[in-house]
Amino acid sequence: MKTTLKKTMAALSAAAVVAASAAVMAVPTSAAGVSLTMGSKTLTLAELKAANYQVTLPIGVTDSINSVGFGVTLGEGLTYVDLEASVKKATCLAATNDAGNFVFAPFAYATVPLKAVSGQIAAITVEVSKDAKAGDTFTLSIDGKDSDGVETSYKNGETGDSGVPGGGAGTITIAEDPTEPTTEATTAAPTATPVAATTTTAKVATATKKPAKSTSSPETGDALPVAGVAVAVAVIGGVALVAKKRK
Questions:
Q1: Hey, what's the torsion of the CAs at 120, 115, 30, 123, to 10 degrees?
Q2: What was the pLDDT predicted at 157?
Q3: Distance of alpha carbon 84 from alpha carbon 87, whole angstroms
Q4: Confidence of residue 20 (pLDDT cuts 50, 70, 90)
Q5: pTM greater than the 0.85 cutoff
């Protein structure tokens, strides 16, 4: 396997020489430097299963280059599937170690006239363990080193800048599947239908009785029965008669 990686490194070196010859002979070291970047992704367990547990992440550079060699170390729970260049007419030949948790790839891009590229330069696909569950996070790291830890270099053929690239890391995070909102049937208490107030108006006899003729004295207001009136008249008459005789 080491032999394969060394051959890959040789291919990278050859590509770098081609790119450099089209630019300048002197190769100053870049003061600003270039770093390798690894993308990250968050997906639900359902999405992971739908993708057959495979996830693709972008690999990029922070500044323009024509060539660079990089190594990707896969964290526990990840295995290598594929790696391809994201730039047309660029070469990116990947090789893995026996354990399948380290991938080395030289990237080379040469055009006439020579142009450098920046941003995403490749994409790596890995397989996540089928034991993955919501809340798990898997890490991938990238740097400018081969499987033996030997540093590689990047080169910008247009400017002649070169140097050892910086590294970075990315993650694959498994999120909780969204839960359906629990819609509890809200049973409204039966609304009492307002019953029209049935006004039972007692039919009161409206037969108006003619008021009895008052026999009361206007001064006292006491009514006397008819029989009593007759007796009173007789008494008064008797008294008057006795008084007359006395005269």
A1: 20
A2: 93
A3: 9
A4: very low
A5: no
Q: Record the tokens describing residue 37, joined without a space.
A: 């970047």
Mean pLDDT, the chain, integer: 75
> What token pair was written down for 71?
């190594």
Q: Which helix (H) or strand (E) holds 75?
A: none
DSSP string, 170-199: EEEEEEPPPPPP------PPPPPPPPP---
Instruction: Give Cα 167 distance to the centre of its chain.
Output: 31
User: Facing residues of 92 across strands?
Assistant: 107
How far is Cα 227 from Cα 234, in angstroms, rounded to an integer? 11
Q: Which two tokens stand for residue 25?
A: 């002979």
Alpha helices in the chain, H assignment, sequence order: 2-21, 45-50, 226-246
* Average pLDDT, integer, range 64-75: 97
Strand 168-175 relative to strand 137-143, pairing: antiparallel
**Cα 166 to the center of its chain, rounded Å:** 34
Size of the chain in residues? 247
Asked if pLDDT for residue 88 goes beyond 60, the answer is: yes
Q: Which of 147, 140, 100, 98 is nearest to 123 (CA)?
A: 140
